[in-house]
Amino acid sequence: MGVEVDFRRWLANFEAEALRRAGEQDPAWEMGARLDPVLIETLRRFQFSEDTDNRLLIAKTVAAGDPEYAAAIVLFAAEEANHGRLLDHLLAAAGSGRITGHWADATFRRLRPAFGLRLEMMLILASEIVVLPFYAAIADGVDDPLTAEVAARILADEQRHVPFHCDWLRGCLAASPPAFRAAAVVGWWFLAAGATAMVVSDHGRTLTHLRTTRGRYARDVFAHSRAAMAQVRAADPGTAALAGHPRRRLPTRPPVDRRPPGV
């Protein structure tokens, strides 16, 4: 028998966040950003990944038949698009442009139409978890205040996205036989391990630049993954998890005078 997850509270959470974000001022892009080239390359990759077209995902969730979940996914996709926008502006502030493609993302986008919703959400959960400690490393380790602010804003959203996806997978897998659930969890661990290895291989120099290590990053991913799988297998819905990921406090910065000169 499946577990019913009430996505009305998640929809309310995403709606409240959209309302808060609508009244939030953008970072002060005019400050500019001074970044090491190795970090710029990582941010360019992240920007391209965040700027994914999620219309197919939305269509799959609509077809799944839960209108509250589908509406929440629409708002989740809007937050992901906003991450791409923030990183795009940050790169521009650093005097860099975006990339137009990468083989890993291109492969995912080509295969995506063949994925069922369950497999796609497992992939999305793995990708969200592997970026959590990376955005935290950027927010805590970068010397540039504008970059720290952007990373902290994105991290705060990702901290909400993980328990949201865990709740859906929990309800989905609970309807399956125990052997299938166990196999799905093992399969997810392989996905997460592969994603972690790719990040360590591609962005290890960036982690060093941010004054952390590949090993520490991998341990942090493991800790987040273990917590996520505990929620997926939990007896109760993820209400506690929703409340247990508070919004990260943004770095403080002096107010910027945005008036034109002479005014």
Q: Could you walk me through the main structural features you see in this protein, from its secondary elements to its overall organization?
A:
With 263 residues, the chain is mainly alpha-helical. The protein has a single domain (31-243), classed as Ferritin, core subunit, four-helix bundle (Ferritin, Up-down Bundle). It has 10 helices and no strands. The protein has helices at residues 8-22, 37-50, 55-64, 67-93, 103-111, 117-141, 145-174, 178-209, 214-232, 239-243. The chain is globular, with a radius of gyration of 19 Å. The termini are far apart.
The first-level CATH class name = Mainly Alpha
Given helix and strand content, the structural type is: mainly alpha
**CATH-derived architecture:** Up-down Bundle
Task: Return residue spans where pLDDT drops below 50 for at least 5 consecutive residues.
Answer: 236-263
CATH topology (fold) name: Ferritin
Q: From the alpha carbons, calculate the radius of gyration and give it in angstroms.
A: 19 Å
Q: Sketch the major β-sheet.
A: none
- Tally of strands: 0
The percent range for helix content is: over 70%
User: What string, H for helix and E for strand, traces the elements in order?
Assistant: HHHHHHHHHH
Strand content: under 5%
Number of DSSP helical runs:
10
CATH superfamily: Ferritin, core subunit, four-helix bundle
